[in-house]
Amino acid sequence: MKKLKKLLALGLCLSMAAGVVTGCSTTQPTDPSGSSTGNTAKGDNNSLEGAHVFMFKSTGNSFGDLMFEGFNEYMEAKGEKAVYKSPAETTVAAQVQLLDELITQKVASITISTNGDAGYDEVFKKAKEAGIAITSIDSAASPDYRTTHVNQAEPNDIGAYLVQAAVLITLGIDYPEDGDMKGAVETALSGYTDEEIVLGVLSASIDTPVQNSWIAAMEAELQDAVYTGKVSPALDKKYGNDDLTESTTQAQAFIAENKVDCIISPTTVGIAAVGQCLKTSNSKIKLTGLGLPSEMQSFMPASASDDAFASVCPYMMLWDVIHLGAVSAASTLATLDGSFDGAVGSGFTMDVFRDYPETTYEAYDNGDGGTAVLAGTPYVFYKENMADWVKKL
User: Are 189 and 231 in contact (CB under 8 A)?
Assistant: First the structure.
């Protein structure tokens, strides 16, 4: 949609804010529970024997910090000890080394968001033989070794939502109050005759399972006839390795190339990096993706009276990350007490957590040879609710 673009005012991104982070129905999902943020890791200075370990992709990532907050809170409420252990580098090798150390220290369970599809079999086998329960979250571990995977939302729903949001944002259309983005896309594109819209993606690493599943779902959504001849089926993909510096470099490349109309970043490190670069350069490229309101408030409308399109990111989505961590804790405890084995149809009940009622989760076929439980659905943050959510997530 190049005719709708003005000349870009290119420039280097200024210093980025510290602490940026890593990522349906046709109606807006129920507003998830609000909650405070923070990392409340316990037990790191004591013996880890019998502890429940939560491991994210790397340290310094608020997405992982917030998930651990929920994990830790639920574990503590049950009288259990939770520990946050993540490597400094976002690599498979770094996680494997740390996992090996945790097995030696005789931890009770490991809940992990993996950095890749392969390279874990030997250490997971060792953990299983030691009687350590393995649950994966956010990014799935091998089905041969995990009890189940705690999925934040269906990948197909996330991919479809992201494409729909990017197209509407490119066309200058506010998030529809009824939440029916697909219906709004169909209406908007029915009379669209301008140049083909081109979407870009700034993801994590090229082999990160969860982001790749979302990208595959985006590509599947773009095969729908409603987009034919109006939105390019090819996504311009770049990878920032969930690293602030690399993500900034890739965002600058999008701006310099000036080939895309909207960038989708399904990682909270990437979306904040792109937001800063677009804002600093005064680029007319727009942005959507998966982000935390508290990290994205400088790049999004602050109130219902704002012009959403005066901001680089008119709207985006995510889920209640803290609740997601708590669900993984409940799953792990049910595994250890023998009431949940992760088989299709088996389930566990999670006690009341903050504003969430007691809920039963049932395992389903995840399509990768293992099972998963679904913690929730995507939730869209936009000008009508941002003022509330920046205080909660």
Answer: yes
